[in-house]
TrEMBL record:
GO terms for biological process: negative regulation of ERAD pathway; negative regulation of retrograde protein transport, ER to cytosol; negative regulation of VCP-NPL4-UFD1 AAA ATPase complex assembly; positive regulation of autophagy. The lineage of its organism: Eukaryota, Metazoa, Chordata, Craniata, Vertebrata. Pfam families: SVIP (PF15811). Transmembrane segments: none annotated. This is Small VCP interacting protein. The keyword Lipoprotein applies. Keywords: Lipoprotein, Myristate, Palmitate. It comes from Seriola lalandi dorsalis. Residues 18-81 are annotated as: Disordered. Residues 21-40, 48-62 have a biased composition (Basic and acidic residues). InterPro entries: SVIP (IPR031632), SVIP_metazoa (IPR055366). GO terms for cellular component: endoplasmic reticulum membrane. Residues 70-81 have a biased composition (Gly residues).
């Protein structure tokens, strides 16, 4: 029985301390965000270019909506001549 006691002496050093719940929650959120980013750009060689193009399309759509609303004519233009 004396052979087992030396083995248990270093067991306290092997214990992994778990972080507090706030730190753990933050780590899990960061990991989830990273996974979502990776899956969103799977197979894309240049994700920055895709993001720029998406933002440009959104701006174009937003501008088209604001011009159609401010025009008030419903998009029809009459020509008299």
């Amino acid at each position: 029985m004396g052979m087992c006691l030396p083995c248990l002496g270093g067991a306290a050093d092997d214990v992994v301390v778990t972080p507090d719940p706030d730190t753990r929650r933050r780590q899990l959120a960061e990991a989830a965000e990273k996974r979502q980013k990776e899956t969103a750009y799977r197979g894309v060689k240049n994700p920055e270019a895709v993001e720029r193009k998406r933002k440009k399309n959104e701006e174009t759509e937003k501008q088209a909506i604001t011009t159609s609303v401010s025009g008030g004519g419903g998009g029809l233009k009459w020509q008299v001549g």
